[in-house]
User: Fold M18 family aminopeptidase from Marinobacter zhanjiangensis.
Amino acid sequence: MEHTSFNQNLLDFLSTSPTPWHATRNMARTLDKAGFQALDEREEWDLKQGQGYYVIRNGSSIVAFRTGKRSPLEAGIRMAGAHTDSPCLKVKPNPEMRRKGFYQVGVEVYGGVLLNPWFDRDLSLAGRVTLLDKQGRVQDCLVDFRRPVAFIPSLAIHLDREANSNRTINAQTDLPPVLMQAPEDDKTAFTELLEAQVKQEHPEQKIGKILGYELSFYDVQPASLSGLRDEFITSARLDNLLSCHIGVQALLEASGDEPALLVCNDHEEVGSMSAEGAQGPFLSSVLDRWCGPENRSRVIARSMMISADNAHGVHPNYIDRHDENHGPLLNQGPVIKVNHNQRYATNSRSAALYRHISDELGVPHQTFVVRSDMGCGSTIGPITAGNLGVTTLDIGVPQLGMHSIRELCGTRDGYTLYQVLTAFMGWPEVN
Assistant:
């Protein structure tokens, strides 16, 4: 795969993956086309050498792996990790709000959202709906309105003269989006609107009752190339669907000789503590069933994990927010993340292998260390390293606007990380 087609596939993936459920479904479809076999955690597994498999939990997390030609006991496993969730606004369970002829819904802030950019955007709605069908069975289905259905209007500057100098946002009162106009006596339940959308997208589904939902608002503007020379990618959810896409493509393009695995967890943005999050048992369970619990420690001792999660690129208007020797630049290569307080799991050994592979391929890399007077974020890297005891590297593509409704990265960095990760998944010795 070359640079242009890689980015076009990335743009398509970003634009059609408004939620973790849609992202996971899209990754599964790509794996299906490549001949990977879906596994069910409720059933016995009969894994064969040289075959690709994947397993999904909660519809929002996925582990995909290739068993390789060599046994994991002999070769270890080349692992990569990312996360499917992004900061957003989620609809509350009883969301209806009717004020002055407007029909609004209450929202809950998910993760560390940069709230200001959510105002004055064309918003759509997507996620998972759980329903009772006419046969009395509980079913899940995905919905995506795909068109502007909501708007969070800013207060006019004439009514808030300090808006440009002293604006704060109250998540409870300032964020409920406007969905439509409705008379004061309107009794339309949100679930009625949702049921109509389910019927439109899934006409075969015989709905008895909507039992629940997990829905997120998102900006309908699709992912695109930008910049006078198309040197940038702008999109929602670059953090961290970019890494999910890179991981899937690398797994598919790797030689297949060595055991290799990709895990994309949900709930990283809120701490990873869930059944399908990195603090949960999902990855450990898959490894136990693949390698046998009695062999896992030996396999892990020969393995390595690359946790791929986007990095903070240097903002040209805020250069002083970076350590002057560790400020990553867009389109200058992926960023090795280092934090000696273990907010990142990188050590000299894991970083050395990444640098060695990059040098062998002739592609660039950078290093990030947060300013000593600032706090440091984290990733699934330290969590996975702590749970499994696996040597881990934290790396990411540099970006701007992290946790905004619209983010920006370079067109070359994702492809570079894909090249290195592909080589890593076929590397003969990783630990």
